[in-house]
Structure formats: structure tokens, C-alpha cells
Design a protein that fits this description.
The complex is a heterodimer of chains A (about 300) and B (about 375). Chain A has 13 helices and two strands, in the order ααααβαβαααααααα. Chain A is mainly alpha-helical and about 300 residues long. In chain A, strands 1-2 form a two-stranded antiparallel sheet. Chain B has a seven-stranded mixed β-sheet, sandwiched between helices. A six-stranded parallel β-sheet of chain B has the order 2-1-3-4-5-11, sandwiched between helices. Chain B has a two-stranded antiparallel sheet with strand order 13-16. Chain B starts with 7 loop residues before the first helix and ends with a strand. Helix content of chain B is about 40%, strand content about 20%. In chain B, about 50% of the residues are buried. Chain B is globular. In chain B, helix 1 crosses helix 4, helix 3 runs parallel beside helix 10 and helix 6 runs antiparallel to helix 11. Chain B folds into two domains: about 140 residues, Rossmann fold (3-Layer(aba) Sandwich), CATH 3.40.50; about 190 residues, Response regulator (Rossmann fold), CATH 3.40.50. Classes of the chains: A mainly alpha (about 300), B alpha/beta (about 375). The interface between A and B is large, with 52 and 48 residues.
């Protein structure tokens, strides 16, 4: 079932890992880009991700349809986003604190409702074999691409286009950059922020459904292991740009595959160090792109961290 | 990331504290007066993880069925001072006189520290190494599941075509290393050219990394895969999805991929725990140091899957019969580790009962991987 490809196994594994692992990062990041562009930070997306994973898995198992599971996860994510958006619309409410409490609420609820679904097997989402042209089984396996990954790419392009050229995008940017300017234009900033946060929540929910319904493809309490939080951090790394968020997600996925891949070709000394690769990489890029002269470029003006 | 949820017990702890010191004195008396036995089970993870903790929780469920026995349980108790608090509240509020804290890290210093304070409570720990200088009301028990993993290896040795088998491991502690070594030695009893690739994930439960590790093993050409992580479900599903054969661990995972499942090494805690509790009910003492394998019913194998050849079935049954008699030895000299050092000299044999095996710190020759 396999050909010996020697050291080539490492780049192939990184490619495969980038495609397999990046999707949840991508969806959560895109959701957070949308939310933060409207001037709010939703740190609760980790909880949304985990709850999306649980609800998606549960609905897919009970209904027998993986796509219904994705829909349920998106709905659950919308509800969490809506809740965050509504609470933050109250005067003098800190969005970071609300985000942290919603993160704990989301994971707690997911664990509470999820215990019955650890053992059952739910249907998986389909994947497209894009590696048909190659006769190397490893490459074929690496290029088995899930539909959600492709949807994620389309979404990233769409979001970038929307933010840059459409009226909706302009409204979102105005609200994110200056509440006063938005009000002067006759816009209702709170309403727009609630909508952006709810949509962002839906994206994160879908990211969770990818985790439980495709890769690793099973519901358990350790399913996310902090990916939702990392994805929120990726947004800053990607400078609030959907296209850059896509590359950042790919980079993270690929770097995460480095540890297991190196061990599989016999380079095993210090594997804890390789597992830290994604984080070291982030630090490196942030330092390389930092500047002592200007503030964080691309940051929406109304974000509570930049204000 | 640790998650804190207010458990029933934590709530009790707090509310009882508010109720005042009088409640502290009366509660245990009330619970003990009936002359019944209350048994406490403590798990490090979720008790339905389809793996290690679930295997123990199934044991607790069997104990519940014994008349006159009350079972109290708490899950997700970290291997910190938290377990001491849990044990004390089980003793004081629930009146538990027999405790089963089931995770490796609970033993030292938490159980050993608390036992002298409650001399009439029996602490039974899974996996620890009780020595005569430890408190007399503490006991340790464990099963020789490495022998079951050896049988996994026998089936793997027959099934592999690439002569490479794979092992997804959590952490390089002695019990895990012993399982990796047994898996390969079992396979090498079929064909001495087989090698075993091991990938450590560094965590007991990390599904994404376990899936990546499984994919990396498949990419490297391994065609039979097993695991030692808390919940092996992801490894089993991913490996079977890549077309590899699988050997289960902790519990029967055959339902995940019946046509790829060769066999699996399972715990049999219901038998062990009901045995212990019945001994206590009969007024007998549980020995301080209990170990058991197939013969004692501590471990068992999943039913052989349809993918096993006749030769595999025959060798499996032969070896199992030998293990049942108790004089089958896996670790015997001359044995080298994978760095070329002799770890067991010629003429020395370490049967399953040898406590030296519980301190294993090497991977045998033929295992690709390192312990650090």
C-alpha cells in the first residue's frame, strides 16, 4: 500500500498536514477577521469551535448526515456569536472578558452534552482525491482534500473582495475604524457588530465541525487543544487580511505536521522541540515583520486592544 | 488546557464548609452506621473516553451491582493536590472506606501522604509500585497488559507485508516502553526482520497530533498500527482509513473497522474490582501488592478479526496458552536496545512478574525511535 519515498516523506507530510490541519484554523481566523474588522474581539471562538465540534458530531450521528452536522455547528456558532454581540452592545461591557467567559461556557456545555457521543461513530464529510495523477500513495493520501477546505479558500477570497470593493465591506470597515464616523454616516454600529460577530461565530462552528467530522474525525474532549485560541492570534499575525489568514493557517498546519513527520523518518531526538515549531515560527515572523516606527498596520481603529 | 467545572463534590465541599464543623463530624458517622461499604473511584480524565478511564469506570459499574455497596465516582481529577481533596471528601462526606484512585500520578506523594491520616481507609492504587516501607493501608495493583500487547504483535507480524509496523505512543514512561517493545518482540517471533516505528505525541490525549502521527506512520510504510494513548479511537479510525491493519488497546475497538481490526489488548477491570470488593465484604484483607495477567483475569484479548490468517490464529492460540501457564517469558537475554547496548545479558530472563520490567527505560533493537 505504499512506496518507499525516503526523506521525501517529510515535505509530503508537511503538504498533507498543511491541507488537513489548516481548515479549522482557517475558518476560525476568517470568522475573527470579520468580527475584528467591525471593531470587536471575540476570544470565545475556542468555545464556539469546541461546541461546534460536539454539536456537529452529535447531529451528524443522530441524523446520519455529515452536512446536517455542519449546518447544526454553524447554527450553534451563530448563537454563540449572537450572544457575544448582544452582551457587548451593553454599555461599558468589555469584549475580552465576555469572550473568555463564553469560551469557558462553550467548552463546558460541549463537555456536558458530549459525553454520550465519544464512542459512537458519526458519518464523515466527503473528500476529493486530487492526487489521482500521481501513483505514489503517500502523495495521494496527502492530496485527499476535504470540501470544507476548498470552501474555506473561496470564503477567504470572497471576504477579501467584499472588504475591499463592496458597500457591505466599506460599512464594516467604517464601523471598525471609527464609531463616530459610522454614526455620522447614519449607520448603527452595534447592529453591524452583532451581525459580524454572529457570522464570525458561524464560521468558527463550521471549523469545529471539520475537526469532529473529518480530521481527526471524532468527538472527544481534547479535540481542539487550543486551536481556536491560536486562530484568534493568527488574525493579528495575518494583519486582519483574509488572504494572509489563509496562508497563516496553511503555515500553521504544515508546521504542526513537522514533528510526527521527522519522527517517522527516524529523526526523533528532541521531538518536544519540533512540536513547538508552529509557535517558534509565529514568534520569528512577528519579530521579522515588526517595526519600531509605526503602530500595528491594518488594525481596525475601534479594537479595544489598539484603542 | 485545564477546564474547571463545578462538580457535585466540589459543590458539596463548599457548602459543607459553610454548614460548619458540626456537619463534618456527623456526616461520616451517619454514612458508616448502616454497616455497608462505600467505595470511591477517581479518574484522571472523562470516564467515557472510550479508553483507559472508561475501562476503569466499567469496573466501577460492575461493583455497583454488588448488594450493600455504594459507589461514588469523580472524573477529571488532576494528578495534583486536587486528588487529595477528592479523597478526603470521599472519606469524610461519603463515608468511603475503600478508594480506587486509578491514575499513575496519584500514588506518590498524594496517596502515600494521605494514607497515614486515615488508617481505617483502604487506598488501592492502579499502577503504583507498593514496597513494604509504604503505609500498610495502601495497596497497588496492575495487570500484565504487555503480554496482551505481545499477542497484538504476533497478529501484526503475520499481517504485515511491508515488514514495518507502527506505534503511536503518548509519553516514554516504563509501561508505554514495555508495550512498544512487546509489540515488536511479538511481531519478531513471526519474522525477525520486522521493524517497529514509534512516534511519541507527548500527551495522553491530543487527537489532532495522534491523527498526524498515524498518517506519518502510514506514509513511512507501516501497514499495522497500534497505540498507547488514553483514547485510541482516532488512531484506529485514521489508520484503518489509510488501509492499515489495526490492533486495539484499553478496550475493544473492533466496531470502528471490523475488517481491519486484528485483535486488541483489553483491561478486564470488572472482574478485578468485584473480586477486591467481595474480599473486603468477606472481611478479608486485599494483599498490598497485586499483579495479574491472563491467568488471573486482569487482561483479555479482543476476539480475533476476520483478517487474521490461519497461521496467525494458530500461533496466537499457542502463545496465549503458554502465557496462561505462567512460564512464558518475553524479556530474556541476550537482548539489545536500539542503540546497541546489551540490556539483558545472556542467560538472564525476566518473566512478567519481574518488577525490573516496571522500570524499563529502553527501546529494543528494531524499534525506530528514541525515548527522549
Amino acid at each position: 500500500m505504499s512506496t518507499d519515498i525516503g526523506a521525501w516523506a517529510v515535505p509530503v507530510a508537511i503538504l498533507g498536514g498543511a491541507i488537513r490541519v489548516s481548515t479549522p484554523f482557517l475558518f476560525v481566523s476568517l470568522g475573527e477577521v470579520l468580527t475584528e474588522r467591525s471593531g470587536r474581539i471575540n476570544l470565545g471562538l475556542e468555545g464556539t469551535l469546541v461546541f461546534g465540534a460536539m454539536s456537529g458530531y452529535a447531529v451528524a450521528y443522530l441524523s446520519g448526515s455529515a452536512w446536517l452536522g455542519v449546518l447544526a455547528a454553524a447554527l450553534a456558532g451563530t448563537l454563540f456569536g449572537l450572544l457575544h454581540g448582544l452582551i457587548c452592545s451593553l454599555p461599558k461591557v468589555n469584549d475580552i472578558a465576555v469572550g473568555i467567559s463564553l469560551m469557558l461556557l462553550g467548552t463546558g456545555l460541549a463537555f456536558f452534552f458530549g459525553t454520550a457521543f465519544v464512542q459512537p461513530v458519526a458519518p464523515h464529510l466527503p473528500s476529493i482525491p486530487l492526487g489521482w495523477w500521481s501513483d505514489i500513495p503517500q502523495l495521494q493520501a496527502a492530496l485527499r482534500v476535504n470540501v470544507l477546505f476548498l470552501i474555506g479558500i473561496v470564503l477567504a477570497l470572497l471576504l477579501a473582495w467584499m472588504l475591499k470593493t463592496t458597500r457591505v465591506g466599506l460599512i464594516l470597515r467604517v464601523v471598525g475604524d471609527s464609531t463616530d464616523a459610522a454614526r455620522a454616516m447614519g449607520l448603527r454600529p452595534n447592529l453591524i457588530r452583532i451581525a459580524a460577530t454572529a457570522t464570525g461565530g458561524a464560521f468558527a462552528g463550521v471549523g469545529g465541525a471539520y475537526l469532529s467530522l473529518f480530521y481527526p474525525g471524532s468527538w472527544s474532549e481534547g479535540i481542539s487543544s487550543g486551536q481556536g485560541l491560536m486562530a484568534v492570534a493568527l488574525v493579528i499575525f495575518a494583519r486582519w487580511d483574509p488572504i494572509k489568514a489563509f496562508w497563516a493557517a496553511l503555515l500553521f498546519g504544515g508546521a504542526g505536521a513537522l514533528g510526527p513527520a521527522l519522527q517517522s523518518v527516524g529523526i526523533a531526538k528532541g521531538y518536544y522541540l519540533y512540536y513547538a515549531a508552529p509557535y517558534v515560527l509565529t514568534l520569528g515572523v512577528l519579530i521579522a515583520t515588526s517595526s519600531p516606527n509605526r503602530a500595528t498596520t491594518g488594525a481596525p481603529g475601534e479594537l479595544s486592544i489598539t484603542k | 488546557m485545564p477546564h474547571k467545572i463545578l462538580s457535585r463534590r466540589a459543590f458539596l465541599r463548599t457548602s459543607a464548609g459553610l454548614a460548619g464543623a458540626t456537619a463534618l463530624g456527623t456526616l461520616p458517622m451517619a454514612a458508616r452506621a448502616a454497616g455497608k461499604l462505600t467505595v470511591g473511584f477517581i479518574y484522571v480524565g472523562a470516564k467515557d473516553d472510550y479508553g483507559y478511564n472508561q475501562s476503569h469506570a466499567e469496573g466501577a459499574a460492575a461493583v455497583k451491582k454488588i448488594p450493600g455497596v455504594t459507589v461514588v465516582e469523580e472524573e477529571k481529577v488532576p494528578e495534583t493536590v486536587d486528588v487529595t481533596k477528592t479523597m478526603e471528601s470521599m472519606i469524610n462526606f461519603d463515608g468511603a472506606t475503600l478508594l480506587f484512585p486509578t491514575s499513575f500520578g496519584y500514588f506518590d506523594p498524594f496517596i502515600l501522604g494521605l494514607a497515614p491520616k486515615y488508617k481505617d481507609v483502604r487506598f488501592e492504587h492502579c499502577g503504583g509500585l507498593w514496597t513494604p516501607k509504604d503505609p500498610k493501608n495502601v495497596g497497588s495493583y496492575f495487570g500484565y497488559i504487555d503480554m496482551a500487547v505481545y499477542l497484538n504483535g504476533v497478529c501484526a507480524g503475520h499481517a504485515t507485508k511491508s515488514k514495518k509496523i507502527g506505534f503511536v505512543a503518548a509519553k516514554p514512561i516504563p509501561q508505554v516502553l514495555e508495550n512498544i517493545n512487546c509489540f515488536l518482540l511479538g511481531a519478531r517471533s513471526v519474522d525477525p526482520t520486522i521493524t517497529c516505528q514509534v512516534i511519541f505525541t507527548g500527551e495522553w490525549s491530543m487527537p489532532v497530533k495522534e491523527a498526524e502521527a498515524t498518517n506519518a506512520l502510514c506514509d513511512a510504510g507501516c501497514d499495522v498500527i497500534t497505540a498507547h494513548v488514553d483514547g485510541p479511537k482516532v488512531v484506529m479510525q485514521t489508520a484503518a482509513g489509510r488501509g492499515a491493519f489495526i490492533c486495539g488497546y484499553h478496550a475493544d475497538q473492533s466496531a470502528l473497522a471490523p475488517e481491519k481490526y486484528l485483535t486488541g489488548a483489553e483491561w478486564n477491570w470488572p472482574k478485578v474490582y468485584t473480586g477486591f470488593v467481595e474480599e473486603v465484604l468477606a472481611g478479608k484483607e486485599i494483599p498490598n501488592f497485586v499483579r495479574g495477567g491472563f491467568k488471573e483475569g486482569f487482561v483479555k484479548m479482543s476476539p480475533l478479526g476476520s483478517a487474521n490468517s490461519d497461521a496467525a490464529r494458530k500461533q496466537f492460540e499457542d502463545v496465549k496458552a503458554k502465557i496462561m501457564t505462567g512460564d512464558f517469558v518475553v524479556f530474556k537475554g541476550p537482548l539489545k536496545d536500539n542503540k546497541g547496548n546489551t540490556v539483558i545479558p545472556a542467560g538472564v530472563s525476566q518473566p512478567e512478574t519481574d518488577v525490573a520490567l516496571e522500570k524499563m527505560n529502553y527501546l529494543v533493537e528494531g524499534v525506530v525511535g528514541t525515548t527522549s
